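Tokens in:
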């Protein structure tokens, strides 16, 4: 079974009962008394022991793994003719992309195919790619398919390839075509005409697709068979919203628990099983080009915008990395195109706030992954607690990182004392805590990583905490938090703080 599914202790039914008894003040006292001493062992805490072999082979996480997905509408000017988001002069957003380690920007969503949204003009494209160059991200650019013609897509494809090929990752034709194409056979026939027309007019164009809704594995498999040998395919793309299956009538407290339950991780596994093994066996890369917790109403307020979503997202990022994904792009923005509701993006990673951006809990999950997930994934062995997801990476910077995510989901959960063994060549360790006020899953504000939040100008000044030299691998993991642990080679002397890290 998958490691992320194995590592949970209580059934969802049991945790619901526990959650109803949870007291915020009890959790606040627990967090306040323990968070300041992450390496001191106590007699009441359960113990775990985890180890890795830094020389073990493992999947290499691509440098552009982390990504955003935004609606096509966001690259158009506002009513005043100004580009509110994607322009090279938007330094706070450029800084935020750098801080969060974003390497991919997908432009698409439902507004890529909506007839009431105009097709971006050349100037709109110029502004987008000027920003992309400044932020150093590759762009997945979506052209229209629904109620359209191949000839109409040739001009924007030619313009992008002639002006911005260096920043272009690939071109997608249509968004979630399974929502409006009759069946895969019809889609394959239609999109083949687009590939043919664009490739003839603009040789060397790289494509990606099909970008369907979750669990449409037959479309992904068919896509590989139809175009894998005849068309330059950069990525097989799929969408993922693993919390969307949940009962929308549950209380917010129950829904937050469900977001952290094994059922949600199982949904990612079910989605992957419909396409991943076959696509990878055929030698193709794949990317989750659009994802978030729950697509209904662009997320559920009080769930998708809380600290619970940060713990879910950090686990989900590592889960997809372990299963060979070329990257994961979180759908975000101030608004998104969804049926019903007011379009406000509840599950946003960030939202516009004055001249800068308000970073939501999901952004902290991305930052935590950016700090620990660059390198080669290592198998973790030991007495694994079912409520803990544990990941390790032999990083490109020469360090070994552990990421420990404690989805306690119980009012009486105890801190865990964990002994970490990174191998004999690593003896000095530092930690960084991802938490919310009182380690409360319902928190929307006050989230910190390394003792600091992410500022509205996109900057972050968190720091690592140096562990006691006498017990460099012994850490305390608090319920409903995530702990990052950095082991440096014995010859390297760790620094106690790092300001304005990226």
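Residues out:
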């Amino acid at each position: 079974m998958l490691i992320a599914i194995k590592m949970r202790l209580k059934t969802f039914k049991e945790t619901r009962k526990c959650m109803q008894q949870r007291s915020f003040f009890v959790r606040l006292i627990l967090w306040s008394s323990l968070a300041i001493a992450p390496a001191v062992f106590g007699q009441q805490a359960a113990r775990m022991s985890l180890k890795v072999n830094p020389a073990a082979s493992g999947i290499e996480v691509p440098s552009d793994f982390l990504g955003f997905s935004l609606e096509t509408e966001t690259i158009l000017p506002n009513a005043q003719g100004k580009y509110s988001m994607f322009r090279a002069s938007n330094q706070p957003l450029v800084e935020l992309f750098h801080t969060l380690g974003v390497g991919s920007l997908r432009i698409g969503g439902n507004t890529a195919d909506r007839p009431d949204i105009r097709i971006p003009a050349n100037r709109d494209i110029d502004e987008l790619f000027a920003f992309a160059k400044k932020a150093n991200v590759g762009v997945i650019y979506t052209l229209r398919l629904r109620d359209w013609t191949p000839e109409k897509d040739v001009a924007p494809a030619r313009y992008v390839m002639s002006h911005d090929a260096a920043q272009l990752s690939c071109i997608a034709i249509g968004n979630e075509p399974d929502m409006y194409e009759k069946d895969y056979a019809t889609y394959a026939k239609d999109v083949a005409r687009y590939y043919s027309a664009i490739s003839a007019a603009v040789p060397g164009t790289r494509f990606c697709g099909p970008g369907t809704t979750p669990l449409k594995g037959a479309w992904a498999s068919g896509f590989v068979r139809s175009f894998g040998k005849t068309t330059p395919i950069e990525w097989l793309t799929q969408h993922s919203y693993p919390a969307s299956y949940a009962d929308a009538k549950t209380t917010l407290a129950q829904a937050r628990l469900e977001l952290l339950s094994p059922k949600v991780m199982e949904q990612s596994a079910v989605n992957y099983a419909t396409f991943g093994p076959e696509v990878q066996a055929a030698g193709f890369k794949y990317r989750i080009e659009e994802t978030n917790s729950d697509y209904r109403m662009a997320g559920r307020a009080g769930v998708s915008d809380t600290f619970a979503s940060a713990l879910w997202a950090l686990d989900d990022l590592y889960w997809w990395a372990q299963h060979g994904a070329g990257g994961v792009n979180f759908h975000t923005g101030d608004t998104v195109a969804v049926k019903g509701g007011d379009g406000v993006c509840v599950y946003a990673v960030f939202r516009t706030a004055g001249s800068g951006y308000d970073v939501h809990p999901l952004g902290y999950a991305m930052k935590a992954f950016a700090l620990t997930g660059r390198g080669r994934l290592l198998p973790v062995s030991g007495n694994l607690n079912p409520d803990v997801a544990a990941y390790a990476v032999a990083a490109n910077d020469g360090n070994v990182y552990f990421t420990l995510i404690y989805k306690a989901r119980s009012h009486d959960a105890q801190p865990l004392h964990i002994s970490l063994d990174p191998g004999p060549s690593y003896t000095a360790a530092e930690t960084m805590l991802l938490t919310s006020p009182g380690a409360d899953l319902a928190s929307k504000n006050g989230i910190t990583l390394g003792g600091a939040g992410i500022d509205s100008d996109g900057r972050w000044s968190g720091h690592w905490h140096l562990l006691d030299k006498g017990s460099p691998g012994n850490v305390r993991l608090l319920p409903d938090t995530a702990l990052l642990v950095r082991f440096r080679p014995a010859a390297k002397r760790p620094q106690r703080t790092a300001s304005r890290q990226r």
